[in-house]
Amino acid sequence: xETIAFAxxxxxxxxxxxxxxxxxxIRYLDCYHPGDHRIIGGRMAYKAGLAAFVFVKLKSLKHxx
Length: 65
Prior knowledge:
The chain has a domain at 19-60. It is 18% helix and 31% strand. It contains 2 helices and 3 strands; from the N terminus they run ααβββ. The longest helix has 6 residues, at 2-7. The chain is elongated. The protein starts with a helix and ends in a 7-residue tail after the last strand.
């Protein structure tokens, strides 16, 4: 939610009014090993100390202004 609020100039009211899959999409990329800068296959994720990235894509920019 912080990412969406940031996209709207820290307007949390607008960000909280947005609907996932209608106004924005979220994609996850997990199993990232920061020391090696690579993605590890499998489902070890957080137990092995691996990181994750979260990507947010706004479907429409009409609400930005």
